[in-house]
């Protein structure tokens, strides 16, 4: 059974082998479902020149934003800048290479990469700067552009529960990009709120099968809210 046990006992072990100039896919949307402790470990490691693939880049002082602040990210592949003023500043100043990608296309690039599909055609972006210098084909009278898929050296993922074997359950909207990201890393590392013994998870409720997961760690999470909107009592 030891060979199927994906648990590691430290964040150092969880990200062992991550080095400069690698590509990392990070799950999450805004600050929802982000692997915050794995991101913090990358900061502590001090690796540089990273290409990071994520829907956005956290906020200035939390999530992937802390890696931007420390100049550890060379290139961001994302769908929007979000609430991150430092991301905007580095983009506009030319300090950071940015590949802005339509959100659905980004999700499919990651999903297709994890499925072993090297590229796909999509109508999204045709006739815009997104489609410049990309192959165009026509299907049923409509133009489509060829988009390459994305894989990474490491995928870092946040789950809710997992068993020892790395079968993962996500909670509500924290699924977002996490299930796709988990499939697209050469090494996939998942941090969760709770690890249970094998047999404790209902098989029909598992979102990411353990076959995709290489390392698993249980962490404590701040789960910060990006923007809170309330109404008067």
TrEMBL record:
Keywords: Transferase. It comes from the Bacteria. One of its GO terms (molecular function) is transferase activity. InterPro entries: 3-oxoacid_CoA-transf_A, CoA_trans_fam_I, CoA_transf_BS, NagB/RpiA_transferase-like. It holds the Pfam family CoA_trans. NCBIfam families: pcaI_scoA_fam. This is CoA transferase subunit A. It comes from Steroidobacter flavus.
